[in-house]
Amino acid sequence: MSGFLGFFKKRSASKDSSPAEKGKKESSGNKKPAPRSRNSSQNKSSKRPKQTGNRKSARQIQAVENWSIGQFQVAADPEKTRFHDFELPSELMHAIADQGFKYCTPIQAEVLGSTLTGRDAIGKAQTGTGKTAAFLISTIKQLVDTPAPDSRYLGEPRVVIIAPTRELALQIGNDAEALTKYLPLHVVTVVGGMDYEKQRKRISENYVDILVATPGRLLDYCERKDLFLDLVEIMVIDEADRMLDMGFIPQVRRIIRMTPRPGDRQTLLFSATFTDDVLRLGEQWTWNPVKVEIEPDSVATDTVEQKVYILSSEQKFPLLVNLINHHQLEKVIVFTNRRDQTRKLTEKLQRIGIKADQISGEVPQNKRLRTLENFRSGKISVLVATDVAGRGIHIDGISHVINYNLPEAPDDYIHRIGRTGRAGASGVSISFACEDDSFLIPDLEALLGDKLKKDYPPEELLVDPRKAKRS
């Protein structure tokens, strides 16, 4: 479409208010329930949750009363944006302080500057840039500023956030709960591969303020009349490019059609890349959006030291074990390309006494969650994974990412190494290149726009630890 890029240019929110924004201004503090069709209202449960369901607990009240913004001091910096620079609720600022946030990342500053006024947004940002916190903070503030309708049914979320993978959805749900811990907002996460009835019970036990979901499971509950999306106020679509890659766009279209039209809801769409397909979706699903594009100085994060070891396939396992032992690595992710490689490598590491476990598509979801929690808490030091863990998993303190197999898709390399060096911390990425996959290096370097540092591993790191033990 001609003039499409101009369509995204920032404009004054006061000049270009959407129908949704105008409705908010006119009904501030006295919002009327939206009309419902007879069929949908007959299907909706009139049951109300327990009175305590949407109130602050005594613990929350005490925490809020014992805290003031004066306890969260952040010095003004002309080159940085503070969360204090936005008029955020005290309870939300308390949760932000608990997370250790002080200054906004570039995408947080850009997104919050526009979306807090109700503007739609299409954002492009690299993994690890803080986009999840950006859309959650914006969403939570607007939920606080605009009270829920007086007449409300169970199964009617005010905010829907969809993500392509279970792990990413669960991570977003955890982040949402952390940021709403001092607010009477109810967060529910529903994903495939986990107990259907338990998640259904969570939907029906309380009003749903923020719903985080994978597309398939969300449609399941909508088709069974457990969820209704006709009163959604804010729609967030995360990792839109990944949705395209995984073939989820038809499901997302069905979900979007169940929500109010663009302009009657706020829509935030995020993607790691801006392909023509992503931009077309943005045009269809948003109304007068602001386009936020944070271009990194380099494709890979500057906080990650990258190196490639040239070796034979037989030398990979001894090098991996020796790197872990010599550097006393306590939190490292090792990436493979296939499920069978993940399983076999994990078993070999466990046999030699290394605290390792795996996550891949063949591991049941509940087991994956336990493994991630064990990794987060330090019960295991090595997580062996396929690219199922490559996006959206943010675990603090990961010092090293090791590519046991070079990724076949160059973009996966960026998402793999993005698991370390996050939020300003430094990290190390080590890739093993053997006769089976070294031909992939030129494609990686083309994507990075720079040459990777390549070397042969030190001889002492190639000694087979299994033979050394026997001797």
TrEMBL record:
What InterPro entries does this protein's entry cite?
DEAD/DEAH_box_helicase_dom, DEAD/DEAH_RhlB, DEAD_box_RNA_helicase, Helicase_ATP-bd, Helicase_C-like, P-loop_NTPase, RNA-helicase_DEAD-box_CS, RNA_helicase_ATP-dep_RhlB
Location comes to: Cytoplasm
Q: What class of enzyme is it?
A: hydrolase
**Superkingdom assignment:** Bacteria
Provide ranges: composition bias, Basic and acidic residues: 18-29
Keywords from the named record = ATP-binding, Cytoplasm, Helicase, Hydrolase, Nucleotide-binding, RNA-binding
What EC number(s) would the UniProt record show?
A: 3.6.4.13
What does the record give under GO molecular function?
ATP binding; ATP hydrolysis activity; RNA binding; RNA helicase activity
What is the catalytic activity of this protein? ATP + H2O = ADP + phosphate + H(+)
Membrane listed as a keyword: no
Protein family membership: Belongs to the DEAD box helicase family. RhlB subfamily.
Q: What does this protein do?
A: DEAD-box RNA helicase involved in RNA degradation. Has RNA-dependent ATPase activity and unwinds double-stranded RNA.
Q: Its quaternary structure?
A: Component of the RNA degradosome, which is a multiprotein complex involved in RNA processing and mRNA degradation.
Q: What is this protein called?
A: ATP-dependent RNA helicase RhlB
Q: Which species?
A: Endozoicomonas elysicola
